[in-house]
Write a structure and sequence with these properties.
The structure holds two protein chains of two kinds.
Chain A (H helix, E strand, L loop, with lengths): L37 H16 L6 E5 L3 H4 L9 E4 L5 H11 L4 E7 H7 L1 H10 L3 E7 L2 E2 L5 E2 L22 H8 L3 E6 L3 H13 L3 E7 L15 H7 E3 L1 E6 L14 E5 L5 E6 L9 H13 L3 E8 L6 H5 L11 H4 L3 H9 L3
Chain B lengths: L2 H9 L8 E2 L1 E9 L4 H14 L4 E6 L8 E9 L12 E4 L5 H6 L6 E5 L12 E5 L1 H5 L6 H19 L4 H12 L3 H21 L6 E2 L10 E4 H11 L4 E4 L6 H14 L11 E4 L3 H13 L4 E5 L1 H17 L3 E7 L16 H5 L10 E2 L4 H18 L2 E7 H5 L1 E4 L17 H7 L27 E2 L14 H21 L4 E3 L6 E6 L2 H16 L3 E6 L1 E2 L3 H9 L2 E6 L5 H9 L2 H6 E5 L8 H13 L2
Parallel strand pairs in B: 1-8, 2-5, 5-6, 6-7, 10-11, 10-12, 12-13, 13-15, 14-15, 19-20, 19-22, 22-23
Antiparallel strand pairs in B: 2-4, 3-4, 9-16, 14-21, 18-20
Helix pairs in contact in B: 2-5, 2-6, 5-7, 6-7, 8-9, 8-13, 10-11, 17-21
Classes of the chains: A alpha/beta, B alpha/beta.
The complex binds thiamine diphosphate and iron/sulfur cluster.
Amino acid sequence: MSTEPTVQPPAPGKKVNRIGLEPIAYRGGKTTLCAGCGHNAITERLIESFFELGVDPTQVIKLSGIGCSSKAPAYFLNSAHGFNSVHGRMPSIATGAVVANRKTIAVGISGDGDSGAIGIGQFVHLMRRNLPIVYVIEDNGCYGLTKGQFSPTADLGSTLKSGVVNDLPPIDTCALAIELGASFVARSFSGDTKQLKAILKAAISHRGTAMIDVISPCVTFNDHEGSTKSYSYVKDHDEPLADVSFIPYFEEVNVEYDPGATTEVMLHSGSRIRLTKMAEDYRPTDKMNALRLLHETMSRGEYATGILYIEPDKQDFIDLLGIVDEPLASLPETRTRPGKTALDEIMESFR
Amino acid sequence: MSVTASAVREGFPQARPERVVNDFAIQVATVNGSGSQTANLVLLRSIFQMGVPVSGKNMFPSNIAGLPTWYTIRASSKGYIGRKKEVDFLVAMNPETAREDVLTLPPGAAAVYDEPLKLEALRRDVTFYPVPFDKLITPITHDAKLRRLVRNMIYGGVLAKLLSIDMGQMEKALRKQLGKKEKAIALNMSALQAGYAYADANLPKLDPFAIEPMNKTQGMILIEGNVSAAIGCLMAGVTFVGWYPITPSSSLCESLIDYLKKYRKDPETGKATYAVVQAEDEIAALGMVIGAGWVGARAMTSTSGPGISLMAEFAGLGYYTDAPAVIFDVQRVGPSTGLPTRTAQQDILSVAVLSHGDTKHPLLLPSSVSECYSMAIDAFDLAERLQTPVFVMSDLDLGMNTWMSHPFEYPKKPLDRGKRLDAATLARIGEFARYRDVDGDGIPYRTVPGDGLPAYFARGSGHNEKAQYSERADDYTNNLDRLARKFETARTLVPKPEIDMVRGARVGVIAYGTTHWAIVESRDELKAEHGLDVSYLRLRAFPFTREVFDFIDRCDRVYLVEQNRDAQMLGLLKMECTPAQFAKLGSIRHYIGLPIDGRSVTTELVKQEEGR
Ligand SMILES: Cc1ncc(C[n+]2csc(CCOP(=O)(O)OP(=O)(O)O)c2C)c(N)n1
Ligand code: SF4
């Protein structure tokens, strides 16, 4: 059955954003995920972030692999093009699409199985290329769509509903992404509305790969005692690095923070991220520091959340390719088919 | 004159009375990595420059250095450029294989060999020419590394003398081969001259083979299929290339990269009007191509069998999402190690239906370097017109070997970007539904990000006309039926077969790709030696066009000749035949890792005809 509803006409007097669009313009089809699934909360935060930043939804492309998480692109930004591809291969679709049309803002939605298992090869190489994309892993430590098997991010010793114990160590996608060259790496929790939204907004404003691992409990298969990716476990073991606030460039907001207690990072777009000091003075531009923190918190069974690492000025893949400013996809024949003299010259070289 | 040489002369029973002019095959047996390629190409090119039709085939191991390699140069006054089964003139440089190389020569053949190998005792019916390569190379250079490299050029000189190949042409060919490297040219020239002088003084001509000038190559070029396909992609206005290296397809993307660098810089900004991404594997390569095609780029990849297997899942996704993609399959022998550097037509069946689910793909079947070029252009047009992955089925023989051709023509038609929605069309059709068959040809209209037109959500099997998620039976069936209609449209758009219907002939042959060259020769043999006239249809694409079935109807018996074990193309054809057509079909198959030759076809066809 077709499930995508038609967009309702806006009610009078509703709030609009910077580019005059109402929140409804950022919504998508009705979700078919389980009620309470962490993935739905992430979808909501994406809608809010795009709305609040005033991004033109027709500039966005939404990409995903396969899984419950990968269904999410159908539930936001209806007027954006989308591609729900095959399991674990979203990174390659994204790479082709973004390179062929550099004007698009790409959002990739993946799962921990999608990126950590079948798609780890493509995940690794996308991070390494620093392709401009907001790359969200909706991390529930299990395979939702195939009904609850362990995924590679399941923690050592966590159990399945059936009682099966995971005896392999997890892959930390954040540590991996930092190591590989992603220029914006964050972790958050689907239940942390404020932090997740601030991170997503910063990620959308970042140029390069913004990889966000969002712990997103699977209420149907992995939200029980013994799961380290359940709502209750994460709430108890979430260690926010800092209080993230994102200041978009165009708003020129001056938030009053005590300078001594904040770290500020300027993004390429001119936007700024402010991390208010919490437990320690965290510098997100220090790679070694980020990796050390991840290892330390992991060994305590805790999740460090927040923006873990950021390198705002790193060249992205598009810069490296040295391509023209216009989308390659829309170049006219006059610019892509060499003239007859070129062919003649080539033929001459084989005589 | 050395003692050995005169002994050999006495040992030779009887010299052939007639000269064999411009109709023989030279085979150079060396060790790979020994730098024989320059010498071989200089020989090939010199004969070509003398106006004699030639072809060059490299049989090389899957190895970087140290394993046996055979390079065959065939001169053919009649213009046959397929493989010739027998070697007439051997250059035995490889101690490992020399014995067998000599023992398999036909009677009356000749062999130049490295003197210490002492091969002359092996045969009494072969003319031997021993050459002391090491002695000859010593005065030319003191550098041991260079010695090894230019040593091979000596046999070039020896052959020039023995076969009357013009030394002026040899020098010209050498210059063409080495470009502006004057030092290297001088060094190689002295090796050539040393070989020539040695043969002149010590090797009296005892074999019948000779090259004489003709005028059959005027205005022609010598080129490999992969390079030709690359030029086709360049001229097709490719904007995205995603690839993963694999023999025998790598040189396609590698030459494309060279051409793109040269010819596709934006004149104003100096920036590239294309992007090339070396992917992490073939799965990613095709994923990138589909992603790029989905946003509207002309995107391609090239690979061989193992890569095709990895691409299977994405090929199906491309089919079900109506995404254009161009994939070159430069076919080689089966999986993994062993014969990956040998040629075959073994991916036909698997590529035609590549992926899971009901899937079929258009295949283009080039048989010449000029078709590698023209079908590359066709492939991009068809991929965008049909909004589907299109495969160009080349093979190692075509892709990596050197072929003569007329120069390629500049494309006459503008690029066909297919059914892209625009405001006017939208007004005409009223509403955009991505997968609605508005025109009845199975091809829907499409939009791309950034075109200001309505967006859609691409996904696999479960969607309705509006690209919305659906698991309804009617939505699924409607879409599959539309895709089938689209395949029928493809049938009318793909290149038509080339047909030579011989009046009164009852037997017909169908072939495709490089098998063509063996058929050309075999038909002449069948006519000359057996008085058998054979009609011929050369397939140029799948799906099969109407002409193919008409051809079968007009013959009593039809042999489909191909280079695989399981008669793969025949299998595809049988799926669409009437029972009467089915009953007429026979098969001739060749699968030894070497290109098929005319003689093998003749022998097998005659055998099957007689055994009827
Ligand atoms: C090639 C392939 N193998 C297996 C599957 C089956 N499959 C579908 S979703 C999935 C796991 C999804 O897990 P995850 O990525 O963590 O997403 P979640 O459903 O938990 O959000 C699997 C194994 C598939 N679709 N394709
Ligand atoms: S099965 Fe789990 S992951 Fe899938 S929708 Fe339900 S709660 Fe979410």
